């Protein structure tokens, strides 16, 4: 099984995305794979398909989290620095596997929740809900898979609830959770607190990028009464793009951050979209994958995140991921060097 997983990871690094392509890769690239794996006959696409369908995704998720943690430590040791730093933002977000749905279930595709380290740009863990679970349960599983000590967990309004706050605080971490109308009572309490606050500390920021002007303002107000475990403050972010109407967003946080910290943390959360989800879709074709039987969607999601982490570290940051994939496909030594990160 371990050999088959290494074959699938190697194939994913070269752009393969399906069981048929994994089998083709194992057959046509035997010369390079035989330097790592001893085999006489390449596995068939049915073999790869059966493995993906039957492999327990819970065990694969735990193995991936262990691999990502060891990967980060090894990178830190090789560079002489600590890769995972205190106050690093870990963005928690779910992503639908758009085409991995059963017949007649197009509106309900499976999803995977990922924890993304915004500084190192590594996916630290991922989990998919079972048929009896939802994204909230999957996010709590992800939290349980990784060490969050001294980190700052960010998430959207779906995950702004007591169980998430308690899970984060128990790991000696902080949280910054978006607060919207789905928590109506808390939202009203936050607005009332902000209205009563006498001149809270404020920071404003203006910048121009991608052909547009953006203005942002951050305010932080300590709470009088905690609304959930560890709750310490409310953050209000007001932003405006060009001449559009200002947009106001509220957040519940477990620490009284400075306004500048609040602005930086809330902006860092969105790196999960460009730094992980966009790469998975554009470069690793996650949304185009039609594997949908049994555990295949969840297991392929983990495979792609393993490949993404390896590709992230194979070259200097300015080398496009698309170029790294082509180099893996065209250069045997480069591919072996990339796979060496798994050891």
Automatic annotation (TrEMBL):
Keyword Transit peptide on entry: no
Residue ranges annotated for the Transposase IS4-like domain, each copy included: 86-307
Keywords assigned: Signal
Endpoints of the signal sequence: 1-19
Name of a matching Pfam family: DDE_Tnp_1_assoc
Domain H repeat-associated protein N-terminal: 3-67
Tree of life domain: Bacteria
Protein name: ISAs1 family transposase
